[in-house]
Amino acid sequence: MEWYSYILYVLAGLFAGFINMLAGSGSILILALLMFLGMPAPMANGTLRIAILMQNIVGVASFKKQKVFNYKEGMSLALPAIVGSIFGAMFAVNIDKEIMEKTIGGILIVLFFIVLYKPDAWVKGQVGKIGKRPSLSQYIIFFFIGFYGGFIQAGVGFFLLAGLVLGSGFNLVKANAIKIFIILLYTVFALAVFIYNDQVDYKIGFIIGFGNMLGAWLGTKFAVSWGAKYVRYILMGVIILASIKFLGIFDLVMTMLN
Fold first, then answer.
1. Measured between alpha carbons, how far is 48 from 29 in angstroms, rounded to an integer?
2. Rounded Cα distance, 114 and 147, in Å
3. CA neighbor of 195 nearest in space, from 9, 31, 47
4. pLDDT digits (tens, 9 = 90+) for 197-216
């Protein structure tokens, strides 16, 4: 591995960890970088989980220290998410490499429009409109959110925030903290599935994880008003480039030009 790769991994982890604490979708950056640098999609998908785990340990500890939430508030919804994540990870490790790349490309296109239309602004307006006691439908919803998180992870923060705010009535600050807590818990189980199936690069995972931990610590401490705008533009750019690559559009264009 070239020396500059270490710098890229740490910087990508730092930025991803920062925006994951503020909203979500930072994992897209890491997944895209790993695959652009030649790592097979299944291995990239599994390696990413080490960084997510390290990042969320710091995030949960910091939010808890600031008394933003307590563990009981997130545990009831974390349980169906954990079960879903195990099934999602098992599904992911058995998918063909090329199918996985195309699937990621398709998901990224959906995430592009999610980022484009800023769902957090709409979600913010719905705070407190629904009671906090989980219903059967919420358990089912969080099972499928967990399945998605176990399967691909990238962008799961959007769905968790929507579920916690719209379904449980948490304010955005508390919902964001509980989101990190739920992801931490289910990532332990999803990572175990990827490790069992030899789809984790420990060295790269820990390098990125170091950056994620620093980014997560910064993200829980600071909120820069102008930052969200530029983060959104960067994410949209990365999503477009990555989707073009993973859907094979870039290779098709190059073939036509040659």
1. 10
2. 19
3. 47
4. 999 999 999 999 999 888 88
